[in-house]
Amino acid sequence: MKKSLLSLFGLICWLPLFAQEPSHESFIIKNLDANTERFSKAAREIWENPELGYLEYTSSKVLIEELKTAGFNVETGLAGMPTSFIATYDKGGPVIGFLAEYDALPGLSQDAVPYRSILVEGGNGHGCGHNLFGTAVVASGVALKEWIDANNIQATIKIFGTPAEEGGAGKVYMVREGLFEGVDAVINWHPSDRNAANASTCTAVMQGYFKFYGQTSHAAGSPERGRSALDAVEAMNMMVNMMREHVDQGSRIHYVITNGGLAANVVPDYAVVEYMVRHPDVTEVKDMWQRVIKAAEGAAIGTDTKVEVEVVAGIYGLLPNETLAKTMHKNLSTVGGVEYDQEETEFAKQIQTTFNSPRVPPLSMAKEIQPYQLNHFPASTDVGDVSYVVPTVGLGTATWVPGTAAHTWQAVAADGMTIGYKGMMVAAKTMALTGKDLILNPLLIKEAKKEFDERLGGLKYEPLIGDMAPPLHFRKDQNKVK
């Protein structure tokens, strides 16, 4: 009896010490809070050096240096892409992958101010927040690595540095190379004007250039000798626009003439139009793309020109995984949204006055967590191909002022200041906590893989790009694609 009382007394004495020991969750959150300034500086450095797809040498280097400093083993130049990388921290156990993006957009140069202020005329800008995207992923991976070390846990973290999401589809080449084999689950996120962790579908897409070759001549003196490549482009566009009436309602077809000739009095012997074709069903995309090619061939026949088709991207839609998404939603709800201080509130109010929209959401949306749901958005991402080979989950956080559209100067402005950084750290915490849950709960991974197999339904993934090499010239030569 006396021995039992002593044991009980000893246990009572030790209980306060156990209570004071930080939980797994609080360890990760405190770690990221302590490193907010460090990762905000990294995000700002990438923001100040906006680089287009396949040209992200400075941006990828910033992230790679952070990962090397943290103890990750880094491989670069994978799948034929100089700015790609995989950073691995291998302690055995389940393998959790993270996707990092870091490419910018052309023509969106903007200062981090709530009014239009171009930094470089015609320059690039992070209008989709990939400076935050890549940095948050690195932050979450580093925090998870330090949690693994502190608790002597068996797990492996892989961070995939994926170039050229904004056209070029770098992830597809990494998938085709088999670089995701052996990964149990993949986590990613995207900047947004709200906080949501939903299971989502999106559109598959085919993208490419149609290059027409004709015969130059004097447009007034000897027009009969000319064969206009621009006429061929316009004929193709007319036929595709008529085709719109006879495609599924969920389709999206858009184009831009990237080269239409050099002078009105010279019959252009070279013209180029870029097309993107989208639909939620990848089979429908393949069919529409073939119809667009037929329109191009018909235009070439009708104008006595020649056409060459250059595919630059082909990506699948997202395969949702509700097992993972519900776990991520739980963690996002724990972390909470973005709280503005007075200066950020004034910035946000001024930004909202520049929106060309009759409906502007309240600023309070930035701190709200949207209800969980299975949804669809009509845009596309090369994360889709990853989701067809490994269970994948993502979220969005309020890095932009509520009501901001992606690919705008308003998004660029917020991406370079504290509103963007706060949303970035919400994402980093949520991703790290989700990674922690997957590592500690093998049944969660098992259930995610079961759902993955069921949704796949026996479909064999085949990349839409075939055996083509990465279009490393995509952004470098986009106005000189001859």
What is the CATH topology assignment of the largest domain?
A: Aminopeptidase
The CATH class of the largest domain? Alpha Beta
Supply Rg: 25 Å
Name of the CATH homologous superfamily of the largest domain: Zn peptidases
- Terminal CA distance reads 92 Å
Number of discrete helical segments: 14
The CATH level-2 architecture of the largest domain is identified as 3-Layer(aba) Sandwich
The helix content is: 40-55%
Largest sheet: 6 strands, mixed
**Major sheet: order of its strands?**
1-2-4-3-5-12
Number of strands: 12
Secondary-structure element series: HHHHEEEHEHEEEHEEHEHHEHEHHH
Shape designation = globular
Strand residue percentage: 15-25%
Domain unit count: 2
Please state the average pLDDT score: 93
Fold topology:
Elements: H1 2-20, H2 24-34, H3 36-48, H4 57-70, E1 73-76, E2 85-90, E3 95-100, H5 130-151, E4 156-161, H6 170-176, E5 185-192, E6 199-201, E7 204-213, H7 229-243, E8 252-259, E9 270-279, H8 282-303, E10 306-315, H9 322-335, H10 342-352, E11 374-376, H11 383-387, E12 392-398, H12 409-415, H13 418-440, H14 442-456
Parallel strand pairs: 3-4, 3-5, 5-12, 6-11
Antiparallel strand pairs: 1-2, 2-4, 7-9, 7-10, 8-9
